[in-house]
Write a sequence for this structure.
């Protein structure tokens, strides 16, 4: 039995206000989360419940207040070098062209045929002819695809995705989701996918984890998604099993979503 | 008739040149002795004495550049001082800005001193630099550097502070070392801020050079102006100012060209999201 790709154990994250140390905010607590090698796990939860915090912990960008993070059995120290991270907001370097952005990671590692590999990946995400464009000259969907190529060109063992498609329109989004699924099934990487869209989570994942409303969010339910693969994100949505799963997860999630919403209204 | 000469985009240049010509014609008419009766002054020589005469000024410029061809060494000295002050000041500002922005403790210690140095009227240092570095170009460069340094420094400092945290986190996830972060993230991000200040700082480098020359030197355009002023040769003073102005415009245009080349990744209004 090989060690899981990513293992969060009893993780809690408390933020302390810089101006006033008595102001504390616990984003997540008691989080135990495992992503097996080659497994596609989605985390869903109400808005503001600390999903991104969790991902930052897994990436090594954020030290958890308590608890441990293990990557393939090894305790995580510093940046998680085996993970690629696709951010929610714009993360491309605006002073680099699309191609140079995709090359960046390879360049940092001193790979010699960086340009060839980057060009190949740009083609794979359908942007072969756009290599010399700067990010501001690309549409939002194209920028996301450049981000995807930028992350995947490094061939990471773990892919962390933070609502990567939330800013896209529904058609582009489904195209991108299918692209990600195709790439994932070809390479079978471990994926930790954060989303607030339950449909997206069910359509793409092997397993869906629900978080409670913050503060102090924690996993409150876990569902194995036994839909057949390969899937098409648009077609899978009309399957009876999809609807069943959706209802089951939503019944767990609904109260938390309402709770989170009430808290935001009260604040 | 008005329909043809009405200002619009296509004859903008003609209007700009026309305005310049009109100013010079007005200047000429108002100062040429004997052309119109004196209005403000008591006799018709005084206007020419105080304001110079455009024709004589052009004659002076012509003599400098063509018949005598003796301004080139002065221009060269002023240009050298400007470029050196600009280069050294920008380099120092960039280095210090990066260093202080990336080590908050050092920034906290230096903060009051930087504020003090920045608010000090630095032109007052010119005599001290003259004592330290002599009357050659070094003292002018030093003055220019103190002027340029702070402009660049504050912009770099700000630029590093304003690096998008997501871009930074992304670069770190892509495996950038501290050195690579500096080279590929902080520096390009700061450069855009530096460029926004470059027009100001090249102007200030120029000011440093000319003011330095004006306070004491044996060469340079500032020196020419000082000499002419000593003998109340207002036409030569005006000619010197004219040459300096054209020169500054040329420098500014050069910076604009460079900026356009290096900053082509920046979105310009009207072409964002262009496919």
């Amino acid at each position: 039995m090989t060690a899981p790709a990513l293992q969060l154990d009893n993780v809690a994250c408390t933020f302390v206000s810089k101006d006033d140390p008595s102001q504390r905010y616990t984003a997540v607590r008691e989080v135990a989360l495992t992503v097996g090698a080659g497994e596609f796990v989605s985390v869903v939860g109400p808005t503001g419940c600390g999903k991104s915090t969790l991902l930052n912990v897994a990436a090594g960008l954020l030290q958890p207040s308590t608890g441990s993070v293990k990557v393939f059995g090894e305790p995580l120290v510093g940046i998680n070098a085996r993970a690629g991270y696709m951010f929610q907001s714009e993360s491309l370097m605006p002073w680099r062209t699309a191609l140079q952005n995709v090359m960046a990671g390879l360049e940092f590692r001193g790979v010699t045929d960086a340009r060839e590999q980057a060009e190949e990946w740009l083609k794979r995400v359908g942007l072969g002819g756009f290599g010399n464009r700067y990010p501001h000259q690309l549409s939002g969907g194209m920028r996301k695809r450049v981000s995807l190529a930028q992350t995947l060109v490094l061939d990471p063992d773990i892919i962390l995705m933070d609502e990567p498609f939330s800013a896209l329109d529904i058609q582009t989004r489904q195209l991108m989701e299918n692209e990600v699924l195709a790439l994932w099934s070809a390479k079978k990487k471990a994926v930790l996918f954060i989303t607030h869209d339950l449909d997206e989570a069910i359509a793409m994942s092997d397993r869906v984890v629900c978080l409670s409303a913050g503060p102090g969010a924690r996993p409150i339910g876990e569902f194995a998604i036994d839909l057949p693969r390969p899937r098409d994100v648009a077609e899978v949505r009309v399957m009876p099993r999809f609807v069943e799963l959706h209802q089951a997860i939503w019944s767990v999630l609904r109260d938390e979503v309402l709770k989170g919403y009430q808290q935001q209204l009260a604040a | 008739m008005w329909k043809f000469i009405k200002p619009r985009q296509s004859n903008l240049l003609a209007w700009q040149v026309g305005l310049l010509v009109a100013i010079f014609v007005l200047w000429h008419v108002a100062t040429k002795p004997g052309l119109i009766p004196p209005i403000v002054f008591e006799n018709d020589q005084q206007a020419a004495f105080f304001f110079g005469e455009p024709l004589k000024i052009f004659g002076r410029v012509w003599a400098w550049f063509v018949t005598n061809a003796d301004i080139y060494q002065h221009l060269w000295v002023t240009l050298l001082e400007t470029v050196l002050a600009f280069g050294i000041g920008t380099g120092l500002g960039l280095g210090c800005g990066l260093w202080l922005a990336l080590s908050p403790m050092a920034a906290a210690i230096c903060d009051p001193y930087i504020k003090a140095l920045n608010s000090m009227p630095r032109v007052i240092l010119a005599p001290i630099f003259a004592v330290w570095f002599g009357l050659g170009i070094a003292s002018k460069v030093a003055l220019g550097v103190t002027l340029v340094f702070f402009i660049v420094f504050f912009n770099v400092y700000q630029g590093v502070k304003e690096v998008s945290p997501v871009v930074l986190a992304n670069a770190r996830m892509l495996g950038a070392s501290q050195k690579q972060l500096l080279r590929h993230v902080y520096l390009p991000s700061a450069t855009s801020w530096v460029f926004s200040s470059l027009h100001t700082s090249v102007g200030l480098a120029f000011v440093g050079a000319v003011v330095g020359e004006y306070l004491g030197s044996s060469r340079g355009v500032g020196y020419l102006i000082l000499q002419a002023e000593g003998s109340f040769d207002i036409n030569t003073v005006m000619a010197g100012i004219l040459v300096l102005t054209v020169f500054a415009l040329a420098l500014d245009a050069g910076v604009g060209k460079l900026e356009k080349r290096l900053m082509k990744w920046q979105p310009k209004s009207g072409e964002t999201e262009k496919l």
Remarks:
- The mean pLDDT of chain A is 86.
- The beta strands of chain A are 6-16, 24-35, 40-44, 66-71, 74-75, 83-86, 158-162, 190-195, 207-211, 219-224.
